[in-house]
Design brief:
Largest sheet: 8 strands, mixed
Order of helices and strands: HEEHEEEEEEEEHEEEEEEHHHHHEHHH
Helix content: 10-25%
Structural class: alpha+beta
Radius of gyration: 21 Å
Length: 386
DNA sequence: TCCTCTAACACTTTTGAATCGC
DNA sequence: AGCGATTCAAAAGTGTTAGAGG
């Protein structure tokens, strides 16, 4: 049995990769802003709560961009990619493989609320995906990212030139991912170390840390919450961004105190495009034909930003032995510094052709490559069964 | 019996409208 | 009248845990 949480001892360490939280591909450079926090979680084994009504990520995805053309409009998106084709269970303080992965739920893409915006806007400050929510509800109507519990994912960021969300599909993509952002989706925390880390860093958890309410239980409180509060909570089920004007682009981590200043300096458009997507007629929306993506001849490149040695071990045992996972992590394109290559495990044989394709400057998008059967389940654009 | 998921809970933080002073 | 600062209530979000359900 392979244990994820024991990755440090199980892993044959590759050569130390270059310490880099950012990576350049072509002219565009993307940096994971709160990388240290991610690393802290990654060293333990990040878990993200998913709920029926949607739960934010913590740490949340926050990135910065450079190398964009200041006056060209860009759209920035993120989606979640399964790491392996397994599901897991938490047993005896460790993650274990619990069988084959469930069929993938409808894949959705979260578009940054500022999109589209000129390159100067994106480069002016970091981009926060704080408001992105994860759900396990395959019938979700709010545009949240749908994931399976006990499965592992990593967020994948896309940058493309586009003047409107409608024209996104026609542009070339640049795609980025960060190994330290890999997480296990759970409906309840499994690893108490993760719980502690979250409570230490997440201000919203203070109520449980300081309030001394851990002893509360339904048994002790037969009297339910007041109707008014309950009603308020029920109202909260309305689509995010519809009750209140969203204003995102907050601080990349709790202690930075950047949120307020950023918001003051950069009032946002207040448009949550995940909500926007919901308002579109699916028959006309760009989200409407995900499975036909492979017919479009846009180029798309994905780069996996090298992880630093501190958390590299998390590319643990489960990934190497006979795993084809890195066939899913598109290989670095030819313009990638060769020094970064060691951080990538040996390519799966099936990935070789893909690599060769990239040598020509085009990333073989999943819809195009030999894993099309798998990837066809993960369209770039959100769609659902609306 | 075991495992996973859901809902309720107390509390903090965030948000935005209302108010005030200049 | 317009603007910025402040206040405050409501909304949103958090992890925990008992119980339900497969």
């Amino acid at each position: 049995m392979q244990h994820i949480s024991d990755f440090k001892s199980n892993l044959t360490m590759p050569r130390p990769p270059p310490a880099a939280d950012s990576y350049q591909q072509g002219s565009i450079k993307m940096t994971l802003e709160n990388a240290d926090l991610w690393k802290s979680f990654h060293s333990i084994g990040t878990e993200m709560i998913i709920t029926k009504h949607g739960r934010r990520m913590f740490p949340h995805c926050s990135i910065s961009l450079s190398g964009l053309q200041p006056y060209a409009n860009y759209v920035v998106m993120v989606d979640m990619v399964p790491v392996e084709s397994f599901k897991y269970k938490w047993k005896k303080e460790q993650w274990e493989v619990a069988g084959k992965a469930e069929p993938q739920p409808p894949c959705r893409t979260y578009m940054h609320p500022d999109s589209p915006a000129p390159g100067s806007h994106w480069m002016k400050q970091s981009l926060s995906f704080l408001k992105m929510k994860l759900t396990n509800n395959t019938l979700d109507q709010h545009g949240h990212i749908i994931l399976h519990s006990m499965h592992r994912y990593y967020p994948r960021f896309h940058v493309t030139q586009a003047d409107s969300p409608y024209t996104v599909r026609w542009g070339p993509f640049q795609t980025f991912s960060f190994p330290e952002t890999t997480f296990t989706a759970v409906t309840a925390y499994q690893n108490p170390k993760i719980t502690k880390l979250k409570i230490d860093h997440n201000p919203f958890a203070k109520g449980f840390r300081e309030g001394g309410t851990h002893s509360h239980s339904k048994r002790c409180r037969p009297n339910r919450s007041p109707p008014a509060k309950r009603a308020a909570l029920d109202r909260s089920e309305s689509p995010p961004g519809l009750q209140r004007m969203p204003s995102t682009s907050q601080s990349v981590q709790a202690g930075k105190n950047q949120a307020s200043t950023q918001q003051q300096q950069q009032p946002l458009k207040g448009v949550d495009l995940s909500a926007w997507a919901l308002e579109q007629d699916p028959s006309e929306s760009l989200h409407a034909e995900p499975l036909e993506q492979h017919e479009y001849d846009y180029s798309c490149e994905e780069q996996m930003v090298p992880a630093s040695v501190a958390y590299q071990p998390y590319r643990y045992d489960l990934r190497y032995p006979g795993s084809v996972d890195y066939a899913r992590f598109p290989l670095p394109s030819s313009d990638v510094d060769a020094a970064h290559a060691p951080v990538h495990p040996p390519p799966h044989p099936l990935a070789t052709a893909e690599h060769n394709t990239q040598q020509h400057g085009y990333y073989h998008h999943p819809y195009h490559n030999s894993h099309a059967a798998d990837w066809s389940q993960y369209p770039l654009f959100s769609y659902s069964i609306w």
